[in-house]
# Entry
Amino acid sequence: MPRYFFDITSEHTVRDEDGETLPDSETARDAAIRIASEVLPVHSRQLVQTGRVAVTVRDERGAVVHEVECRLTSRSGRAGAG
# Structure
């Protein structure tokens, strides 16, 4: 089975040096979504500061195969104002 690595980027990037053996790329993508949902509350302050928290999935060769990105955007104005 292939090994996938999950790097977390908020203010800085934390590289996954151990990785996880998974059956395929789709399973790695699902794992990245799960990881993002778990780290987002921990990195919420960085999300406000940088506007972005991401989990990047690399394969054994180091190629990026997926990226799960959470962005914070702001909009001015009030909905329904007329």
Summary: The longest helix spans residues 25-39. Residues 11 and 29 are 22 Å apart (CA to CA). Strands lie at 3-9, 13-14, 20-21, 52-58, 64-71.
